[in-house]
Amino acid sequence: MEIKLVGHQKQWDYLKSSFESEQMAHAYLFCGENQIGKKTLAIEFIKILNCQDNNKPCGKCKNCIDIEKGNFLDFLFLRTGEESINFEGMFSYNSALPDLKSGEVLTDKKEIGIDQARKAQDFLNLRSYFGGYKAVVIDNAQNLTTEAQNCLLKTLEEPKGKTILILVSNQPERLLVTIFSRCQTIKFFTNKEINEFLNTPQRNKKEKEILDELLKVLDGTLAEKFAYTKNLKEDGGNTKEIFEVLQRYFRKELLQGPSLQYSKAISLKLNLIDDLIYKITFTNASPKLALEILFLEI
């Protein structure tokens, strides 16, 4: 399947070429502004490494589908949001020891600490389940503590077999020089193609229609909110788009907030939206149920 990523075709072609010529780096740093496709490209690249089809990534084989859903045993996704750290793949860290199941830990920490770095390191040291690449993607890598970054240095200095580590960051200057120098940097830019994609009249009109309907629903009764979700397609339809429209709306509200108390309330809503977007994107969470949870909370 030929992948065309809006605004980042050169980066994609370079990574795909490096894989096909067997000249990949063992560690990459994807850096650039937020919300421009760094993480999306990282996930697609992991599919290339483990796709079962000759035309990689096919997007249809079991490995590609499991990677997309966050269920692939040789792929670990680590991130911090305002209030959450997620581990996808084989580990569920509900205690000091791994549970050997996919899962998630919610925490109020805004940093990725040394314990999480060690667990990611241990994950890469394990043998691949399927004989392909063991892969770790660390989103918001600028939130790695100094101790966590120093812990990852050994992995960067002594990579084992078919493993790959991708750091994703919008503030790469916060990473240690020793980390920065051991990763191959791939820069992402907001360019004309992305801006045109995000600001077409058709897209703006559609977003306004969705937002106008959502604002009415948010001011309605619980019965009206549940009726709205019930009318969505069985698979959730455009639920992710609905979440993203609300995400952009509340971000604007946050910037224009008349008081600190109002801004804090908006921040809590944004944290919940970010977490639910993650769940419906990378896990088997029901999109319709996620939207119902959001309506109950806000």
UniProtKB/TrEMBL annotation:
<dbReference type="Pfam" id="PF13177">
    <property type="entry name" value="DNA_pol3_delta2"/>
</dbReference>
<dbReference type="InterPro" id="IPR027417">
    <property type="entry name" value="P-loop_NTPase"/>
</dbReference>
<dbReference type="GO" id="GO:0006261">
    <property type="term" value="P:DNA-templated DNA replication"/>
</dbReference>
<dbReference type="InterPro" id="IPR050238">
    <property type="entry name" value="DNA_Rep/Repair_Clamp_Loader"/>
</dbReference>
<protein>
    <recommendedName>
        <fullName>DNA polymerase III subunit delta</fullName>
    </recommendedName>
</protein>
